[in-house]
Amino acid sequence: MDKNYTKITDDLVAPVERNSTMWWVATLLTGAGAAFFVFCLGWTVWFGIGTWGLNKTIGWAWDITNFVWWIGIGHAGTLISAILLLFRQRYRTGINRAAEAMTIFAVICAGMFPIFHMGRVWDAGFIFPLPNTRGPLWVNFNSPLLWDVFAISTYFSVSLLFWYSGLMPDFGTVRDRAKGKWRKYIYNLLSFGWQGSAKQWQRFESLSLVLAGLSTPLVLSVHTIVSFDFATSVIPGWHTTIFPPYFVAGAIFSGFAMVETLMLISRKLFNLEDYITINHIESMNKIIVLTGSIVGIAYLTELFIAWYSGFLYEQFAFYNRILGKYLWAYYIMMGCNVLSPQFYWIKSLRRNLYVTFILSIFVNIGMWFERFVIIVTSLADDYLPSSWAYFSPTWVDIGIYTGSISVFLFLFLLFSRFFPTIAIAEVKAIFRISSEVAKAERAKKENAAHGGFVGLQAVGPLDKDSKGN
Amino acid sequence: MSATPNKFVVGLWDHEEVYLHAIEHIRAKGIEIYDSLTPFPVHGLEDALGYKESRLHTAGFFFGATGTTLALTFMTWVMTTNYPINFGGKPYWPLPSFIPITFELTVLFSAWGMTLTYLVRNKLWPGRVPRIYDKRTTDDRLALVFDAEKLTDAQITEIKGICTKEGAVEVKDKVFTEGE
Lengths: 469, 180
Prior knowledge:
The complex is a heterodimer. Chain A is an all-alpha fold.
């Protein structure tokens, strides 16, 4: 890579400074989809939840499936940013900013489903323990649904802080390159007046490290608590102690798949091939095969325990998944989540962009079906055969779901056009120690100009475990 | 804002290791560095400038502890005093049930408290107009800023000479007009 700091700035700010027809077309299309989402939600509020395909038996279906699916997708951002920062995995710098943005947009999409499922959205504020005039009337702190409210809102706001605090220096860079007065004004506003003084950077690093430290248990807690929504109930198929780790692994799995889907498109669209490399993709594929296999083991463990428990209702719930009226959903889930990632044991497939793109879509589909299988099949055939039912989505269900994908893509497109999608300052910070050309150039230049001066730190073989990353 | 100086000498470097070395040499000569601006966090810069460790994480701890205390006290007050309700025979003070929310509020308070402290201490807020000594300090130049109002002409010439000798690619004067 023949790069220097100015080249990095040029490359990474370019998408923000360039106008593209492709972007306009994509944004208008997804914008129309987002408008349809708003329309379907309006329809739901106006005519009631009866416009969805729910019935007395299946009171939770696509809405909660979509909620859990989106929350899962939202896990990769914080995972990449926080956990990989703590483990000092340098490959994160190419993808962390966009993945964090995805987290935020995915959580926005996720939040819509439970809020609108409540029916009277205007009373949604009462999910929080707010002082009120209805005598002493408080929420139930024993309820996992309430824990979920706290978990999701904390997760959203902390992810937002983490993302935005990282963006400020890069907004400063965009501001200082801006030509027009308004552009300069707006990016200065966004950068909070960032200067880049040593003291600012020192506090910046302290903040990012602690936020990463806080986000790591947070990200694990969020999906654990989401799984409690099911695990603490007494529905066979939900009442399972394996749920927390199984949900967390599934969330990472689906999150990484969605990051891949989007990053493969944007690296092509914005010419970022030098920054999001095949090595990045391969590292992510390794995580996908790991978490996909964990999810596979969890499926098999559930089946085994259902059989081994000797508990009739538990056994029925699982036999019913495999052989019942929703068997098609079960096999889509198994095929997409358990079988498809196994291709990644082969190195050439792990490094193949087309294979990665197709499999990432498969995983997204598979993980949606996982939630559908867990939620709908467990409810559909309950203890009382006369109440057994089948769920079919209405156009409103479909509109809200596909609309939420449009909202997500629409927000992502806005982000990628106006915000630097790759953390510019972070890429520069690792540039000297990670670029081979830069290393050679440094040695040569320093020997010539400073008589063998090699800097303050010992310059050894600068592999990924060396100091100073 | 008469207290803020308006005349500066700005040295610009293009290589962080040369820059760090220059800072050590300049400080060893007893020259006061007014500010130091870099486009990215430079490893070891705060040591070279002799900065103390940031106490931000300590603040984070206390904000977090506030969240923990608040969550536990509030839930205890609601469930035992203000609104005691029998939920299916469960205890009125179900401590295990409090753990998730206590954890979330600890993280929430710590993160928000720290970020707000960070913004206040770093003097960052929307609409702040920063002093830009050189536009390239957010691109590819590492700058050292010296307060020229405290220096005599001879000292200024000396500092410029030292900067050039220490590998600065450019040394210039920067004057801000009052109120800028």
